[in-house]
Amino acid sequence: MRPLPREVFESLVADALDAVPAELMALLDNVVVLVEDRNEDEPDLLGLYEGHALTERGWQYGGDLPDRIMIYREAICDVCETAEEVVEEVTVTVVHEIAHHFGIGEQRLHELGWG
């Protein structure tokens, strides 16, 4: 489907973040969620977590720039046929990338149905 307007897509990402339980959101530490059109290196990538997962942070962690979760608007719209599918894919992608912040790997996410 054609890419949704940025404002509409950003509101879907905000809705997906609002749906994450408050207890989990409270545990996010030093993370920013951004919407970008596409990943230059991997144009088909739907989302990306860049940073140091909580499970990898040690005593030396501090003063670092925020970890980044990127949600790729055009790539997600490319794999969806309807607006309802976009809503679902945004939710899955947001949860998937947040899970990486908590140290959950790709294989486990796929096993859990969030791949």
TrEMBL record:
Q: Name one GO molecular function term.
A: metallopeptidase activity
GO terms (BP aspect)? proteolysis
SUPFAM superfamilies per the record?
Metalloproteases ('zincins'), catalytic domain (SSF55486)
Q: Which UniProt keywords apply?
A: Hydrolase, Metalloprotease, Protease
Keyword Methyltransferase recorded: no
Q: Does the keyword Hydrolase apply?
A: yes
Q: What InterPro entries is this protein classified in?
A: Zincin_1, Zincin_1_sf
Q: What name does the UniProt record give this protein?
A: Predicted Zn-dependent protease, minimal metalloprotease (MMP)-like domain
